[in-house]
Amino acid sequence: MTVIDVHAHVFPAISRAESRILAGAGEPWLRVHQDGTGMMMSGDDPYRPVGQALWDPERRLADMDALGVDLQVVSSTPLMFGYAADAGRAVDWCDLVNDRILEHCAQAPDRLLPLCQVPLQDVGLAAETVTKAAAAGHRGVHIGNHVGDRDLDDHALVEFLAHCAEEDMPVLVHPWDMLAAGRMGHHMLSWLVGMPAETHRSILGLILSGAFERLPRSLRLCFCHGGGSFPYLLGRADNAWRNRDIVRADSPVPPSEYVSRFYVDSAVFDPRALRLLVDVMGVERVMLGTDYPFPLGELSPGATVRECAELTDAARSRILGGNAREFFGLDRP
């Protein structure tokens, strides 16, 4: 079976000087140590220790060989989005990041598939960046699930998603800048609770606002981390839609009718959760995602898929690679 990981991150070796493009808005850069380890930096502040695989394509490819991954879809680390910056500076920043991602993936173009990032705080500039990135060789777009208090159901962001569909650029949505940060500063609760909630909110927002009714069906949209809380609370949303007119005011059909409009990755880490995810979404809407190379990811890519006894070999083949081939159009001329 071909194994394609659709959720794998990169943080190119961007210097402190280069990060100043963002002028006080996070200024992400990478400090590389002599022992081969590194530190993601935000301005002058350490953010998170990281390993060489995050920026070194040779190490990435060696890991892929060892882990049995045929192809990785490579997207920036969310710290790098730059959404808080002045839009003009953010365009220059995204151009820099996107060029570095292309350079990273050029080391093995048949195995590393680059996704661009965009200055999502300005939808017009974001659309221009997508068009430019597509021409340069990027195969999709990686975005955060919101920009400040604007979620994906915001009118302008819906227009941006429609532009991605027009450009035939698939969109990978990653949760970030998690809600209620003041209550989740310990035990990584922002990742364990905040991330699933952010993704759940984004999917339901697109459904209940009627955004999916306005978006073209050609849009290919994938939500990371198994769609967050959404698949496991879909029954609650359907029940609310049936019983409360304020819930169904803008969506003509129940939330469960919209699962054919988006994909999710398989990063749920438990065969029982994966079984439910496939039951809810359909086997054709789930793709392998590991969150490589971070330690909260699936360290043995595809292990959960292979350990889910209820899946047929055909279903495993689709999740491990077949669905991703369709999502990213890898078999097109």
From TrEMBL:
Annotated GO biological process: secondary metabolic process
First-tier enzyme category under EC: lyase
A GO molecular-function descriptor: hydrolase activity
Amidohydrolase-related domain mapped to chain residues: 4-330
SUPFAM superfamilies (UniProt xref): Metallo-dependent hydrolases
EC number of this enzyme: 4.1.1.45
Database matches in InterPro entries: ACMSD, Amidohydro-rel, Metal_Hydrolase
Residue ranges of coiled coil: none
Keywords tagged on the record: Decarboxylase, Lyase, Metal-binding, Zinc
Keyword Metal-binding: yes
A single cellular component GO annotation: cytosol
Pathway terms, separated by semicolons: Secondary metabolite metabolism; quinolate metabolism
Assembly and interaction partners: Monomer.
Membership in a protein family: Belongs to the metallo-dependent hydrolases superfamily. ACMSD family.
Protein known as: 2-amino-3-carboxymuconate-6-semialdehyde decarboxylase
Organism: Sphaerisporangium rufum
Lineage of the species this protein comes from: Bacteria, Bacillati, Actinomycetota, Actinomycetes, Streptosporangiales
